[in-house]
Amino acid sequence: QVQLVESGGGLVQAGGSLRLSCAASGRTFSSYAMGWLRQAPGKEREFVAAINWSGAGTYYADSVKGRFTISRDNAKNTVYLQMNSLKPEDTAVYYCARTSERYYYTGASFGSWGQGTQVTVSS
Predict the structure, then answer these.
(1) What are the strands, taking DSSP E only, across 9-89?
(2) Residue 103 has what DSSP assignment?
């Protein structure tokens, strides 16, 4: 089992930046690809970014490419999401999650989730 706890959300103006953190515990953190997903009001949960077990490979939704950066520090059992040039459309609850594999692939299932952290971007 694994526990994931997100933090760092808040209210920010459009064009601003925010850094989300996800602290993991339980099974070996470095063994799994990790990701961030988000859910806006009235919308389905959507993929945002993912990172392979070693951090060597990263993946992003087209909507956040060039603005968001996912990273991880396995020594600290933590994954991050740096969000720059935020837009009102980025407003959502952001969830940290992990797969049961070392390498992420499009359509991969994230089986474990955190409780989420709210990100609100004002215009």
Answers:
(1) 10-13, 18-26, 34-39, 46-51, 58-60, 68-73, 78-83
(2) S
Is residue 12 within 8 Å of residue 86, measured between CB atoms? yes
Distance CA 32, CA 99 (A): 6
Nearest CA to 51 among 18, 114, 97, 95? 97
- Can you give the pLDDT of all 123 residues of the chain as single tens digits? 789 999 999 999 999 999 999 998 876 677 889 999 999 999 999 999 999 988 889 999 999 999 999 999 988 989 999 999 999 999 999 999 999 888 988 888 898 899 999 999 999
Helix (H/G/I), strand (E/B), else coil: 30: helix
Q: In what order do the strands lie in the sheet with 68-73?
A: 2-7, 18-26, 78-83, 68-73
